[in-house]
Amino acid sequence: MAQTVTINSVTPSSSDPCGTDLIPSGSIYNFCTITGYSWLPTTGLSCGACANPTATPATTTTYTLTMSSSTCASTFATITISPLGAPSAGTIYGPSTVCSGATISLTETYSTGTWSSSTPTVATIDGSGVVYGVSVGTTTITYTVSGSCGTAFTTYSVNVAPAANPGSISGSTTLCAGASTTLSETVSGGTWSSSNTGVATIDASGNLWGVSTGSATISYAVTNSCGTAYAFYNITVTGPPSVASITGSATACLGTLTTLSDATPSGAWSSSNTAIATVDASGGVIGVTIGSVTITYAVSNSCGTSYATYGMSVIAAPSSASAAASPNPLCSGSSLSLTGSAAGATSYSWSGPNSYSAAVQNPTSFTVNALSAGVYTFTATNACGSASATATVTVVTTPTVSAISGTTPFCKGAMPVTFTCGPTGGSWSIASPSNRLTISSSGVVTAGVGGNASPSSAVITYSITNMCGSASTTLSIYAKGFATMGGTGYVCVGGQITISGSPSGGTWSYADATHFTASGAVPSNVVTAVSTGGAPGVYYAAPDNSDYCSTPLVGPRTLFISNGTAYISGPSSVQATNNIPLTGSTSLGGASNTGTWSSSNTAIATVITPGATTSVYGVSVGSVTIMYTGGAACPVTTTKNITVVCPTCKPARESGAITKSDDDLQIYPNPTNGELTVQIPDGVIATAITITDVTGKVIITKIDAENEFKFDFSRYPTGVYLIKVDAGDRKYTGKIIRN
Questions:
Q1: Where does the chain cross the membrane (predicted)?
Q2: Per-residue confidence (pLDDT) for residue 220, from 0 to 100
Q3: Considering 347, 368, 396, which residue would you say is the last residue of a domain?
Q4: Could you tell me how many helices (H) and strands (E) the chain has, helices first?
Q5: Per the domain annotation, does 328 fall within a domain?
């Protein structure tokens, strides 16, 4: 506002509280006579030509005073006058928010003021403008400037923001590994974390998982404009309990109690298979059956159950013991190996002849002698008992043989002859020229494959061999011969045969003189058959000397027979251009039956490949007589009628063929609805039959050498059929009615 100031023409004083400035008088007051005053500008002055005007400028104005003197030159002076008002508090600068417990600094355009807070319980401020947040809220900060003209104020609103508050965590402080739980917080919006994720992890919702046993600190962080604050929570992750190892015997005998133990208390015992072993609450195991079983000791806590296991075998005393010696038998001086086995054994021992002993299952082989032969005992043992087995060992020595015993020379006719040699168990062999003698495995000599009545020499050998070597001995033997006879063995009545004996000088004897007579001198006889029948009757004995024995008699030699009967066997008909086999034989038992053959009409049939068996070839239709003569010693003859048939051939006498009516045919039943019989006269052999229907269509054709035929008409339709029969030089016709 405007203020009035009186300007005195005196020395200005600066102590005027209102800002009145006096124009200094200067030296002119002492030396010059002032005649006039002039102020410029005159604005705001009470007068412009007086010495002390009153100035009330609206704005700061510089006034110039010009003084005139009658004695001095004019002079001037200036003065600036500023109008004064109430003081200004200026402007406050700085943050408008402070966190509780924190400070901010405010500044002012003037530095002479003082600071104050309207609510010190919310925020305080010191003389330097430093604001301290006390509690959440809003306070007004005032800056006061005072002067002679009054006091000025300026204000500034400051908000005290709350510091971040993490609240508090609650929930379980223990957790099982592998399990989860949920922690809760009194303040929302925070972030969860774990100090050791190897022990425990936590998600954004506070779900906590136990990873492994140990300790971890769970943090809950809350952040706002004032920063981040944390709440902490210590947790412990635990696991199932620890279980000590089971101690005790790993073997239980059948029906016997074995006690196991475990250092961890309060556990429970169980068996994996109570059919093999049971266990009681104190760890007592009883074997039930042979086998393997697992015994378990279980200990539990809130985090689960831990187990200790123990494998056990339930055994019985050893069984199925066996003992073997190899090789066995063996030679003295050889190495012997013993092997034993037994079910369920844990230790082994052997004992045997010649103070032998060993404490292993399969001892190292050892050299044997004659004293090593005998029984070896194998014993198998375990915690539940023992079992034994034996092996008998035979020690073999190199063999020896004695001399061969037996009679030599001997008569061939007295064979078999037996030879002996020791020890038993050997084998016999013989070296005989032309294999005339043979010897059996028991030393019996008989005639060999090449044996005959002549004297024979041979060497027999007896050998015995075993695994340790062999031994043999030999003996030369001589078999004296016996008589033989030569000559035919058959004679016809009235015939003669010559019989010879060998060696010469033997003796003939005869029997059955009723049927034959003998003449001649030794060594041969001529024998004549007297009548049919008879029995063997000629014998011969060799002379008894160093090469032959008179026994046995040789014979009988001659069989006297009658002339006998001849026979032909085989088919009675043959188709033209075909063959049939015929066989000729005689009643001469043992006589040759080669024989001879002939045909009575080779224009109808011929004989080919003559012999005991021949073939007859049909040339043309007709009948023929086939003749056979057999018996080499006493020939006999027989015949057989053969019919040659051919439906497509003309008979040999076709020009004289006779056609017969159906009266000569017997057809029955006629009419027929099934089987039909056609019969031609006895003594006539049909060669072909043809049956046609009334149109001439052939429905049945049959070729055979018979005089009676059967046909089945059940499959033919009703009507009249014609039948034609060809029988050599005869032809028959007839009708058949099918109803």
A1: none
A2: 97
A3: 396
A4: 1, 72
A5: yes
